[in-house]
Q: What sequence folds into this?
């Protein structure tokens, strides 16, 4: 069965410190992995997807099929990074379904 | 920049009543979705809609739920007889193509409170 696990509900880091938000998945086949972000009082929006291999707002995420992980990383956290982050999964096997993790609330302490 | 819109922002209804949540997807998008998020829990997929029919639905989307695209712009979610456990935030989303290849754009959500 498809599943996305984000083990940390809350994560606090100091400004300038590295940040890593963990995401593990369970999927039979080739998954498409995404990170969505929700800033305070704003709507869910796409941050990045593994297929594009982009760095958005300094964030990167590498799909590790061996560890079935898609952790989100940023070397130097900024206060404006404080938000709710959701890892999500889709793929050929899921049709048009989209599976979200439970989310991690990131707080960057000034 | 075009956005997905949803109305109302907050709906309060009594148990057993029917509710219709409305969404206006981005105009050139072809795929439409409904998700829900019960307070403190994860965002859960309900249904996807393409080419005027349901293309996928989750176990949550039972006979109490239905979706419709009554005209060229609106996309609605109807809950026939609401239960207390239907209280949640409901998000509409749309995308140009399949969700594994195209970004989904989310609406701001409708908070449904069933009393």
A:
């Amino acid at each position: 069965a498809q599943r996305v696990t984000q083990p940390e509900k809350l994560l606090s880091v100091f400004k300038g410190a590295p940040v890593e938000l963990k995401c593990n998945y369970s999927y039979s086949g080739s998954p498409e992995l995404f990170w969505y972000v929700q800033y305070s009082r704003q709507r869910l929006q796409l941050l990045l997807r593994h297929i594009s291999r982009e760095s958005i707002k300094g964030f990167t995420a590498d799909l590790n099929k061996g560890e079935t992980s898609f952790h989100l990383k940023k070397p130097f956290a900024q206060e404006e990074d404080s938000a709710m982050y959701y890892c999500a999964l889709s793929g050929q096997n899921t049709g048009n379904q989209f599976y979200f993790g439970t989310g991690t609330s990131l707080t960057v302490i000034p | 920049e075009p956005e997905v819109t949803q109305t109302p922002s907050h709906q309060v209804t009594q148990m057993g009543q029917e509710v219709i949540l409305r969404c206006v997807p981005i105009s050139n998008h072809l795929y439409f979705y409904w998700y829900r998020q019960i307070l403190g829990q994860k965002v859960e997929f309900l249904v996807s809609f393409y080419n005027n029919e349901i293309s996928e639905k989750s176990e949550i989307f039972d006979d109490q739920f239905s979706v419709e695209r009554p005209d060229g712009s609106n996309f609605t979610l109807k809950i026939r007889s609401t239960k207390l456990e239907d209280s949640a935030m409901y998000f509409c989303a749309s995308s140009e193509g399949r969700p594994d290849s195209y970004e989904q754009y989310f609406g701001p959500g409708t908070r449904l409170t069933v009393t």
Summary: Residues 41 and 75 of chain A are 26 Å apart (CA to CA). Chain A touches chain B at residues 32, 43-46, 49, 51, 86, 90-92, 94-103 (CB under 8 Å).
